[in-house]
Amino acid sequence: MEQIISTKNNKVKQWASLKQKKFRNSTGLYLLEGVRLVEEAIDAGAPVVEILISGDPQSGRFDRIITGATGLGVELYEVSESVLEHVADTQSPQGVIAVVKKSEGDAFAFVANKEKPLYLLLDGIQDPGNLGTMIRTADAVGATGVFVGASCVDVYNPKVVRATMGSMFHLPVFDVELKELLPKLKELGVSVVGTAVDTDQTVFAADFGGAVALVIGSEAHGVSDEIAGLVDTQVMLPMPGKAESLNAAIAASVMLYEALRQRI
User: Name one GO biological process term (predicted).
Assistant: First the structure.
């Protein structure tokens, strides 16, 4: 296991640069922090490239990670605490960071020939915690896939990755242009359902039993006009209380679990 103790090392500079979207885009790599997330990635067979460990590798704390990484041919580095803190996005990193390749896949090829799929489409989501929570909820209900529109926060933002709690390794997640994907879904007979405040149909009256794509809009403005023009049905979440609105991740959870209720 190669040792690196200086933050001026070129490898360290490359790793630290992945905290910025432009370098994630140019390299096709992103960072995972924490024992649980790295274990999830290894268990799922994610394309882990390198793993940084700070602390005694012989302590037993990292046994599963080291064993799994060795089996996958992943490069391991023993780094100083200062190096780990320099690379990490969090204030108190848990002693391990993985460098992972972004998922690659053709969203249009993926949606072909799916039987009664349940898709989650996200439009303009800007809060990393919300985006990660939505992916985690989609995983929980057994959704077929998640499609993140170009106007959303980066899926590989460290805060998004942490918020997924490993769910991003359990179901397909695609970066897409929704305005291009939606017509294709409709051609395939997928019912596209979006949220709106100016409709009388509630989420509980909608039919989610067949092939369906649920569209959730931004926290501040909802589904954009461009995307709203492409949906088949608009539904609202009834709020008999005095709250003005619901958190976008909560709205997605309500819709996903209503779809699950109708399917089980």
Answer: methylation
